[in-house]
Amino acid sequence: MKGKTMQTDKKGKLFVISGPSGAGKGTICKRLIDESRREDLCLSVSVTTRKPREGEEEGVHYYFIDEDRFREMAEHGQLLEFAEVYGKHYGTPKEKVLEKLAEGTDVVLEIEMQGALKVKKNYPDGVFIFILPPSMAELRKRITGRGTETEDVIDLRMSKALDEISYIEEYDYVVVNEDLDEAVSRVQAIIRAEHSRVTKDINELISQYKEDE
Amino acid sequence: MKGKTMQTDKKGKLFVISGPSGAGKGTICKRLIDESRREDLCLSVSVTTRKPREGEEEGVHYYFIDEDRFREMAEHGQLLEFAEVYGKHYGTPKEKVLEKLAEGTDVVLEIEMQGALKVKKNYPDGVFIFILPPSMAELRKRITGRGTETEDVIDLRMSKALDEISYIEEYDYVVVNEDLDEAVSRVQAIIRAEHSRVTKDINELISQYKEDE
User: Which of A2, A44, A82, B15 is most buried as measured by Cβ atoms within 10 A of its Cβ?
Assistant: First the structure.
């Protein structure tokens, strides 16, 4: 132990990236992984009861499971959160995430607000980041720009976004995505800074120094 | 207001950089300022009752004041912390720091542990960063390497350092200064990340979005 450099951040951290649809959280997560050149950073892989689409790989895009297995996982607290979309189930497998964190890998989980709040309840040590559009007008423009939604659907999504924004105080960080490069680099800074945060594990570090002297 | 990009970090933040003598906090602060190329980042300037040395400028290196003025400031809570060194007084002027923060400038304050804890009491919104040597053996090497201290003084400083390390849990962040570039870049990431932190001002931001829609 004598003279050995002390480690302050051996364990990985869970970064939950959330925010209204259209704020750009998916793009930010993709860029985080693509640009990080870190082997110890990965996206969380969900379980789902839907069938794999062409090109989708087990354990890469999803873990594909059946309804019975899903129910069992949900009932035994093995999912950090889960939701139903068009009759199919999706969830975040707790054990897979904890395994990654234990081996020192950071896990990034992109998820909408309600899922994020469930994850916070089940894993409060996560770092919760809310991605905001630069303004509501810009959000409307982005949603409209896709050209796939009717006026009614757009209004519904705008009002959902406003509702979600009311929950920002449940998060640790808020990043305004006006310029994508800037937003990605801010999230990178947050990931870096969080590995220097003083946590309840600090006493272990202090003991290392005391033994060293 | 409509469509205007929301500001999440209009106010400056106080970053208190502390740690044992020999950990390198002075060098890190100097590099932070020299390399930041930010006009809105500055070092805190202390008041002192000692006489200016050659080349020292009022308001740049120190604010030079007399004992009466110092006592008055201390008694009226106008100092975030103060201490006596060789019969002369030194302190951090609260109003000067608050002025900088109000105009959106970040203030970096380099200070030893006891001063840092006093600042925390008087300004809990500060961000408190502890700089650690990579190991106690390395700290001893650095202190010894200066060649200016006797063995007794070195032992005294080592035991003071160990005592200071016990207070890390009072801090928000801990940065191990093994490689200087890496340590500076970590502190820069912390400064950046802190400007994205959700604070009690968040309701103001939420209201801006609600008005915008």
Answer: B15
